[in-house]
Amino acid sequence: MEEFLLSVEELLMSVPLWLQIVGLCFGVFWLLQMILLFVVRRRMLSCIRAELKNNIPVAETQPGVSVVVYSHNQADDLICNLPIILNNDYPNFEVIVVDDGSTDDTESVLTQMDQRSEHFFHTSLAEKITTLSHRKMAMTLGVKAAHNDIILMTDAHCMPASEKWIASMMKHFTPGVDAVIGPVVCENRVGLKNRFYQWDLFDRMLDMFNLTLSVKTYGGWGCNMAFRKDVFYANQNEAFQKYLRLNRGEDDLFLKEITRGKNVAAACSKDAVMVSQESQLKYVWGKIRLKRAFTQRFYFASPVMVRRLDAVTRILCILCGLSFIGLSAWLHLWWPMAVIAVLFAGYAAAYALIPYYTARRLGVHRYLFMPLAFALITPLLDIVFALRAHFRTKQFYVCRI
């Protein structure tokens, strides 16, 4: 034993002190990253596996649900997606489309659809509402028009990935649960830029679920979110009054206001997936990025701090690891380089495979190399959009006239 310790000490003495400090820093950041990966970032994957094994509580009854669809100049999307929603395999639901002053053929499409189904209704916002958020007004109008006690929100450009979409969301309304968030992914498209936009939005969705499941409610996505009507009415003064003049925030900030411990559940199954078919992916990506960067100041502090800790330690872990490997190779110190390289490879594999298997379980496009390729870029984008949101605050508010 003494000989082994002496040999280890001799090996360490052969490494310069400054390089030992770099290695120690890498070890600390590597450990923090592995804890975050397996405690936080892996939570959605664990939840998906639990649902597959039927280890989650399921509601004994199937409550009535009102699906509220927001639409603005999306007649073609309504023609494509409404029949899929109306054909969902669920015993008691209605569909309400709220038209936000569309100028295309939306009205004629809705009129035709109204004649085909007795469970379909539509209404419209007043054209001259200019001092309040249209999305929040549409959300309120849809809730007021609903006949059922549970509201399921989505958008006209979104298509359910399964005919069991409604059922997969509703089964999470067990006693004590007031809201349920569901996964939203972008339609699969070719091209490196489109792949990046898709991955980045998928990564945002992973953050939303993982932080909500492991820390505290981090937000929701209005394209796939359900809540109880009585909670909406009980909290609308608190949940909406603060943010009525915000252009956005009707989904994540609303959930933040109604949160009481564990009353927000997450539907982690392939049947709960909603596919966004927005045509201008770059524009949508930038809009969502900028909106989230602005509304993040209103979020709970704990999930925001965990996300920032993950971003900072990820950058430092990668930089320290690559620096140590490069410097060790330059000094011909092969054994410490090999040790750090093995640890670094294990971290890279875990960081890439967790979202890969999450996407695989959800039945959506799998990202294997994207997480590694943009591991450093994503935190930098967070900083860029945070600065843009800070210096362009006025654009996030509805102007008074």
Note down, in words, how this protein is organized.
With 401 residues, the protein is α/β, with parallel strands linked by helices. It folds into 2 domains: 15-43 and 304-396; 61-300, Spore Coat Polysaccharide Biosynthesis Protein SpsA, Chain A. 56% of the residues lie in helices and 11% in strands. It contains 15 helices and 10 strands. It has helices at residues 2-13, 17-41, 43-52, 75-86, 106-116, 134-145, 165-170, 192-214, 229-241, 252-258, 281-295, 301-330, 334-362, 370-373, 377-391, and strands at 65-71, 93-99, 120-124, 150-155, 158-160, 179-181, 184-186, 225-228, 264-266, 274-276. The strands form 2 sheets. Strands 3-2-1-4-8-6-9 form a 7-stranded mixed sheet, sandwiched between helices. Strand 2 (93-99), helix 5 and strand 3 form a beta-alpha-beta unit. Helix 2 runs parallel beside helix 13, helix 9 (229-241) crosses helix 10 (252-258) and helix 11 packs across helix 15 (377-391). It is elongated and about 80 Å long. The model has no long low-confidence stretch (mean pLDDT 85).
